[in-house]
Every structure is written in C-alpha cells, then in structure tokens.
Amino acid sequence: MTPAQDAAQRETQRKVLSGVVVSDKMDKTRIVLVERTVRHPLYEKTIGKRKKFSVHDEKNESVAGDWVEIMSTRPMSRTKRWRLLRIVRQSPERSAAARTAKEKVSA
Predict the structure, then answer these.
(1) Residue 97, pLDDT above cutoff 80
(2) For residues 90 and 85, what is the distance between their CA atoms, to the nearest angstrom?
C-alpha cells in the first residue's frame, strides 16, 4: 500500500458528525451541538442525547445557526479534537441577510 493510499484509508476511518453551530464568538473555534437518539438499555425507551463539541474552523466561515458536518482530528488544543468539514445548510438569518444585500445591490 502506498503512503497516499494509507493516508486516504486513515482519513475514511475518522468519525463524521453533523450538528448546529451554537457559538461563533471565538476566533477559529466554533461550538457545535450534536443531537442523537439512543435506546435505553433496560427500558428500551428512545432518549435524546445532546453533546457540545469544540470545533476548529480555520477560515471562520460558519456562524451561529449553521448546520455543519464535523470530522475528528488530532488534538489542536485542550478541548478541540474536531474540525469543520463543510457547511451543510446556512442559518435562516444569514441567508435572509444575503438576500437583502443582493436586493440592495440590484436596486
């Protein structure tokens, strides 16, 4: 196996999660809330679990309310072990602001 194939295989083994950006107040760091459902082992009731992850956003491109995908990575700081993979869907406020700016330019 070549080094490139080995690196590609390691890349595919990383965990990928999706969630909502709840805080964008830090530089190059976002807090992402990931929600998932699990079955209780004894009572078998479906329970919602929520967890916040500190995510590295190199270009500061996501804002609060964006739906994003994150991928596990090497530790970047004491709390950051995830990086922003892509923005799946922009927040409604952000897309409305973009539409308003586009209308102002065209007028």
Answers:
(1) no
(2) 14
